Amino acid sequence: MMTHSATSKDLRLRNRAAVLRRMVLDGETTRADLAAACGMSAATVTNVVNDLIGEGLVAELGHVPSVGGRPIARLGVVAHGAHVVGADFGEEWVAVKLFDLGLRRHAEVRVELDRRTVTGEAVASAIRDALDRFRAEHPERMASLVGIGLGLPGIVEHQDDGPFLYAQTLRWRRMPIAEVFDLGDVPVFADNVAKTLTIAEHWLGAARGSDEAAVVLVGRGIGAGFINGGRILQGLAGSAGEWGHTKISIGGPSCQCGSRGCLEAHVGGDAIVRRWLPDEDELAFTGTHGVDRFLAAVADEDPRAVRILDDAVEVLGLGLANLVNMMNPERIVVGGWLGQRLMAVRGAELERAVRAHSLARPAEQVAVVPCQLGEDAIATGSALLPLDRLINGELRAPWAAGSGVPSDSGDPPGARPRATGRPRTED
């Protein structure tokens, strides 16, 4: 009897997750469309939808006419029914963003950091300050905050005594995430920045619908996330995806990880700028500022800058070809602040380099595409960490106790709930 009860509960949770996930991703829908998309009976979908309405996460938006029958109810998520926060820590900054259930971005705080002295405590303090600002400016939305997601540079391991961050390039060894990033009563979830980028692009962007893809993050550092069989590959303890530290030369340039010859040491943002300006102060022209100055020189046809960019595109193409040969992905999605810039100015050349260095058959099967979510991608993927828990029933809906969604929700009275397949800013 107990086994039957547990199985029934698990089935209800799976059905709830499938329906709510589909509604978050697809926007407005109907019960009939949900039944077809989720492979459920109409009665099952009706029961799940009724439960979600009771939790304050879903609402009927009106009706559409039907031929020869009763009007068909349109359904959508209640955008203000829950909120999540995503934080993107990029070594030189932390960007903290507030999203609603429809993945509409309502607020953002960005804090610049000095990477020479940055600590986990400094990052956590910046996030706390952002949360305080959100509470002051959006108290009604923060009242329905269900969780905070962190995108962190390095390896995030979930061990028996909690999650830990190993950020070798920052010289951070086994940082206890729950202790350092204690943000109050709201649950905190964390993953590597490349994996949060992968989550975002798989849910909402260029990797959506693909069961076999590689999403690469190219910035100051380089990483990747691999979608294998529709799931993100984690490896033994979470470090799968450290593609930037694969070696492409013996005795090559030194890497910030302490080794030599890493892909990141050849084509990371700082590595490219340092090759172009070897005599400049190391911190004067690194990061996005340095790369933008470098690309401006390329646009002005500075021959040395053009040659360095040509070499970087060829080497990055070589690194991506290694992924093609190893993983046989359907798509390679190129993201990160440097990756987006390279795809904009040299996307066709990069794709040619990938195909030239790959085995012929997997090269025929792969598409090399830019990420779709732009600067919001990592924070969005971080916010999806708690949202996924809410969808799966691991986090409780804010108004599930029956108090109802507050009328002071930040949306006009009577406004329909909003859903979207892409994050967007508030109108």
From TrEMBL:
Supply the Gene3D superfamilies for this chain: 3.30.420.40, Winged helix-like DNA-binding domain superfamily/Winged helix DNA-binding domain
**Start-end of Low complexity biased regions:** 412-427
Q: Which residues fall in a coiled-coil region? A: none
Name the PROSITE patterns for this protein. Answer: ROK
Alphabetical list of InterPro entries matching this protein: ATPase_NBD (IPR043129), ROK (IPR000600), ROK_cs (IPR049874), WH-like_DNA-bd_sf (IPR036388), WH_DNA-bd_sf (IPR036390)
| Family, as annotated | Belongs to the ROK (NagC/XylR) family.
- What is the name attached to this protein's record? ROK family transcriptional regulator
In which organism is this protein found? Catenulispora yoronensis
